[in-house]
Design a protein that fits this description.
InterPro entries: Ankyrin_rpt, Ankyrin_rpt-contain_sf, SecEffector_AnkRepeat. Pfam families: Ank_4 (PF13637). With 337 residues, the chain is mainly α. Helix content is 67%, strand content 0%. The longest helix is centred in the N-terminal third of the chain and has 10 residues.
Amino acid sequence: MQWAHEEGYTCSWSRQTCAAAAKYGHRSVLIWLHENGCPWDASTCADAAKRGHLEVLKYAHEHGCEWNQSTCNEAARSGHLEALKYAHEHGCPWTTLTCKYAAAGGHLDVLKYAHENGCPWNEDTCVFAAQGGYLEVLKHAHENGCPWDKGVCTNAERGGHLEIILYAHENGCPWDSQTCASAAQGGYLEILKHAHEKECPWDKDVCMAAAEGGHLEILKYAHENGCQWDKWTCASAAMCGHLECLKYAHENGCPWDKYTCSHAAEGGHLEILKYAHENGCPWNEDTCAFAAKKGHLNILKWAREHGCPWDQQTALDARAAEPWEIFQWAIDNGCPI
């Protein structure tokens, strides 16, 4: 680049050129670029901070490169305390995102520095600490007055972080039915048991989430302990191809309707569709239409061979789908257009 520039060749550069030099810690390259008129902007400082290139950050700032909250945010996100200190001590702004990113990365020293030096925080700090499973970060935030909400328990459940849930609940953090649903979705039976035994509310979304994830033992536990379910439990199992979950739900009285068949067709799950139809689940034109739309010719053929109705929507969806043979087969077999 230097040779081309000195020889007078046209060399395309932009603000991204300086940012790239900063990102990879090439201070000498950045100096040369700046001295030869290459533009820069706040992304140069942000990229230097993100990678912890303190000397690059210093050079850029001392030579007039602008910065904004992204510099502090990126330093916090990556755990580069010295870069954050330099930026803050030289007037770079920060926001609640700085604490949030520090917590999300589990960077307790960064969070402590930011908070002790006046950086604002909000519920997101606790939520993201919980999501990452960073108990010490969560403790520090809570014990120093950081607010929290039900998102803490929900995100801890989603990640399977039992210690986080225990601490949060024992210290008065609120939770709701989404907390149990998140545990079910993630397949965390022991966590769901704990939440339920501690009287965390649950609703039909728990069974739906368990069925969607194929977590049969969770579905059994929830149902056997009085959790409600509805037609979406079966539909979710069908969409995601979880036959055993569908069987259990149906055999234990969970309702189903046309959406079970149409979702099975949409997901391409022939065995699911066979089971549902052979056990009396209703279907309608949507089953054929979704099979065509998603390119599942084998399912479309089976559905038609077993009397499933179709209409113009099947032809429309088949025409827009791949492969083309689906549309051709539909037309050849009398699909209305």
